[in-house]
């Protein structure tokens, strides 16, 4: 398990327009500083895997999707040992799509919230008609959420979402992964849209990564940061120290790690056009992926990380798939 590396980073004031990095961190701190009583606690994630489903994206040297491959083109390995592919699909199919939308008050800036809701609606509109949807808006709280198949119903819920206060990002993602256990489709994806950093979750980053590994969800992340925030996060290490000496995880690195672990992608749009492009890429990705499934060896063996590798017989093609998974209920210490 890769842990976060605590690297003390000095905040050096460098003016960018009318803002400085010190001022930015002060804003980030102020946005999440207020404590909230009786906040919900995420349930522990418990997954019993009977079949391992892997979404696989294949592109050529030009970055274009490669269609019409068959099961014979693929090889899937678990811990270096080839597994028999039990199920294969190269056609668009229904999925269980979760959308986790940040409704914290910082999203009010520059109407990020309205654009994020429009992005969530676009994700629903472009999914396979037989898909189901789990929509969870979050701040320091979140609703229980259940999967819904009616697009108009989920659209009404999205449009009616109101702003809140605070951000407990890690806890909310783990709660969404827990809800995904009730999904009816083998292909499962969760799209997180947020502009925040995590400061108040009861769960750690390592616990979140473990929860992703215990799920079969592809976790797409959209870090809807301002230009100043994005530049700051891009130029800092894995951990950043706030002005009150609190350490936070660098969200750019966190989002990339979660996406790569689950075989998805992380996006950091800087404009409305970029945000729409990110949503379109996610939608395209979900529609054009190949689906492989196999039965795991030694399914009763709990708590061990099992590494997955998907290979192609054809040369000159690139494969993206989840890196591994965990069976069982042992949380890391």
CATH class membership of the largest domain: Alpha Beta
**Main sheet properties:** 5 strands, parallel
Question: How many E-type strands?
Answer: 15
Provide the CATH superfamily of the largest domain: von Willebrand factor, type A domain
> For the CA atoms, what is the radius of gyration?
20 Å
N-to-C series of helices and strands = HEEEEEHEHHEHEHEEHEHEEEE
Low-confidence stretches: 1-48
Structural class: alpha/beta
Distance between the termini: 11 Å
Q: Number of helix segments?
A: 8
- Shape assignment: globular
CATH topology of the largest domain: Rossmann fold
Percent of sequence in beta strands = 15-25%
State the helical fraction.
Answer: 25-40%
- What's the CATH architecture name of the largest domain? 3-Layer(aba) Sandwich
What number is the mean pLDDT? 83
Major β-sheet strand ordering? 6-5-7-8-11
Annotation keywords:
333 residues; alpha/beta; Rossmann fold; 2 domains; 5-stranded parallel β-sheet; 4-stranded antiparallel β-sheet; 8 helices; 15 strands; 28% helix
Characterization of this structure:
The chain has 333 residues and is an alpha/beta fold. The chain has two domains: 52-90 and 289-326, no CATH class; 96-285, von Willebrand factor, type A domain (Rossmann fold). It is built from eight helices and 15 strands. The strands form four sheets. Strands 6-5-7-8-11 form a five-stranded parallel β-sheet, sandwiched between helices. Strands 4-12-1-14 form a four-stranded antiparallel β-sheet, with helices on one face. A four-stranded antiparallel β-sheet has the order 3-2-13-15. A hairpin with a 2-residue loop joins β2 and β3. α5 packs parallel to α7. The longest helix has 17 residues, at 272-288. The protein starts with 20 loop residues before the first helix and ends in a 7-residue tail after the last strand.
